[in-house]
Amino acid sequence: MLKIGQIEIKDFPLLLAPMEDITEPSFRYLCKKFGADIMYTEFIASEALIRNVEKSYKKLSILDYERPVGIQLYGHQIDAMVEAAKIAAEAKPDIIDLNFGCPVKKIATRGAGAGMLRDIPKMIEMAKQIVKAVDIPVTVKTRLGWDSDSIVIEEVAQRLQDAGIQALTIHGRTRAQLYKGEADWTLIGKIKNNPSIKIPVIGNGDVNSPEKAKEMFQKYNVDAIMIGRASIGHPHIFSEIKHFLKTNEKLPELSVSQKVELAKEHLLQSLKWKGSPRGIYEMRRHYTLYFKSLPNFKEFKLKLVTSENIDEICDTLENIKKNYSDF
Hints:
Layout lengths: L1 E3 L2 E3 L4 E3 L8 H9 L5 E2 L3 E2 H5 L3 H5 L10 E6 L3 H13 L4 E6 L4 H4 L11 H14 L4 E6 L9 H11 L4 E4 L14 H7 L8 E4 L5 H11 L3 E4 L9 H11 L8 H19 L3 H13 L7 H9 L3 H14 L4
Parallel strand pairs: 3-11, 4-6, 5-6, 6-7, 7-8, 8-9, 9-10, 10-11
Antiparallel strand pairs: 1-2
């Protein structure tokens, strides 16, 4: 069972990872529909939030059906992060999550995200001050270390627990790896099974199938699994995993017709939340992944990622359904 503050989730909890330009409300809608237990907003820059930048402030929007939901913040200045956490708390999320793991160069090299792994005392002090500043459970998402020569996660886990965080998500790669190679879960399991670690440990990295999820739960005994990239174009992965864990049987793969209806629902949610043309533009990154297994798809893809007309996009989706009726 996963317990974070007042949140209690039994039976193999599955969490949707915070992802920039991905985990906005239209995508969260689908992931919740398919059984994600806890979801997170896109990560929000602390300095933009305290300056009341509209795009960042809008990311604080939470709908009741999404709960429990967390707001994730990143930044390299303690004072700014504390102030941003207070602002985020006013949106009444169930969790405030601190991003100490993002490997993107423009974030990490400034000392934010995974860049915090190069200054552990600052990371711990930041977490400690934010825990004191808000009445909402504070959690952390981080990586094994900056690179293979600085694997610090065991020390970090203990010190973050001492700082008062209520759960720790660990991505099984270093910052230097970015998303390359294979995620190493051995240290995640070691931390989870360390008797001195009392807070929940959530594993993250490379869980892209029901079989993989079952293996990670059984082998490493984590309290929950967080799924990120594998959910893009595949929000139904949550229901697939849950069904497999419950029955040891796999759900049938969605047909192309079902995937078309899913993509259309996603598009309509995107338009509902962001309007046109932004809702159209931001859907373009998803289409290839909804239909990634289809042969000779180039012509359809081109139409989906260039059209600015909703009716044309829907016609293209219907044509995909007709042309791939045997898939």
